[in-house]
Write a structure and sequence with these properties.
Elements lengths: L11 E11 L10 E7 L19 E10 L5 E10 L16 E11 L2 E10 L5 E10 L16 E3 L4 E4 L2 E3 L7 E6 L6 E4 L1
Antiparallel strand pairs: 1-2, 1-3, 3-4, 5-6, 6-9, 6-10, 7-8, 7-11, 11-12
Length: 193
């Protein structure tokens, strides 16, 4: 018996891709690189490189590629940190505290899963580094397991926000839930879901 066909992958045509280098305070480092790509289904495409030039800080962020549809919908966004030496990573310990917000946007059933959507925002002046999300019981604070996350360990620039969607099996009943966001450089915040 043949397996059931999955979703059909499609060619992405003339998709804009951008790369930006950022300081740990979120400020831009140099110019934005951009290209337009045609990406065959289930393939990769080379857009541009971002060298580690002498004028860059020892540790900085690289929002490597933001790939969008021609209509502007983001398909892929990845943030990495680059460093010249392991010692340069110590700069993460000196980041100012991030100031996060979490807003629950609602719950929905998605097939055999229950999902809550939440917006996590950075209202501070520093990058919110490696912001870890967790779905928790409102009473007692225990983690809801197993939980799948649409995104996690976020790097949020000042003023930036992202919508995330944690989900869990519908067979596991949970009355009161909270979405918790905890940046590496700050205190955790939660919102009832």
């Amino acid at each position: 018996m043949s397996p059931a066909p999955g979703p059909r992958a499609r060619l992405v045509t003339s998709a804009p891709a951008r790369g930006r280098r950022r300081a740990l305070d979120g400020g831009r480092l140099g110019r934005t690189r951009s290209a337009r790509l045609d990406v065959p289904a289930a393939a990769k495409a080379r857009a541009f490189t971002s060298g580690f030039s002498a004028g860059l800080p020892e540790l900085h962020l690289l929002r490597l590629i933001t790939l969008s549809t021609s209509g502007g919908r983001v398909l892929s966004e990845n943030t990495y940190w680059r460093h010249r030496s392991p010692e340069a990573m110590r700069a993460l310990g000196g980041l100012p505290d991030a100031r996060l917000t979490v807003t629950a946007l609602g719950r929905a059933r998605k097939g055999d899963r229950e999902e809550v959507r939440a917006r996590v925002g950075n209202r501070g002046r520093a990058v919110a580094a490696m912001t870890r999300l967790s779905l928790r019981e409102a009473r007692g604070g225990d983690r809801v397991l197993p939980t799948l996350y649409s995104d996690n360990y976020l790097w949020l620039l000042p003023g930036e926000s992202r919508t995330v969607a944690p989900s869990w099996p519908r067979t596991a009943a949970h009355a009161g839930l909270t979405v918790r966001a905890e940046p590496f450089n700050g205190s955790p915040v939660s919102a009832g879901a």
